[in-house]
Structure formats: C-alpha cells, structure tokens
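Internal tracking record. Fields below are filled automatically when a chain is submitted to the structure queue. Please do not edit lines marked as system-generated. If the sequence contains nonstandard residues, flag them in the REMARKS field before resubmitting.
Queue: standard
Priority: normal
Entity type: single polypeptide chain
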Amino acid sequence: MRTLDKRKALLQEILFNNEWIIEGVYYAWVQQSFDEADKIYVLNMPSYLCKSRIIMRFIKRKLGILKGKRETLKSVYNLLKWTETFQNKNLKEIRNILDRYGDKVIWLSRKKDVEKIIKAV
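SYSTEM-GENERATED OUTPUT FOLLOWS
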C-alpha cells in the first residue's frame, strides 16, 4: 500500500494527462481531481440493484458461467456489508463534498442514464 504522499504524487502525475477517470470510492484523497475535472459522474445505483448484482456474480462464478476471482461466502458477505456502508454513509459524504461543484456533477441512477453518457462520447 502506498503512503498518502506517494498517492498524492501519483495523482498529480495523472492529472497532468489530458483525459483521465478516477474512481470516486477514494474520494477522501482525490479532491484535487474533483477541482480539475470538467465533469464529475456519480453512479448512484439503488442498493438493491448493487447487492443483487453481487449475489448473481457470485452464483455465476460458482457455476462456472462467469470467470473471475474466487469468492467465498464470507467475502461476498463482506462486500454486501461494504456496499451497505457505502450507500448509507460514504455516498452522503460524497454528496456533501460534491455540492460545491454545482452543474459539473452529474448523478446517474439508471442504466439508461449511463448508456446515454457513453453514447455521447
């Protein structure tokens, strides 16, 4: 794991590129990327959808239908718990942080919203 100083230096390096995407889960230390972004897209999918997809992915991997890392019931449980915390706590913090960015923030809560953005690119 990188130290905070090394992460900030790496972020600085990434931001000098013309185009970049940063996953917002790391919102606590990537604020500079929010400042410099042209647009900020936030995936705000319903909790039930996220959780059902996690469970379906686990089942498909167990049945060999989908390739990917091996998951255990415990790891799936932990991911579901993490998702709950993210939806109920972290997303509220993210919303508070992003309030200051106004029209630059676009909240996406449906698959159609995401597809529309992708097609526009």
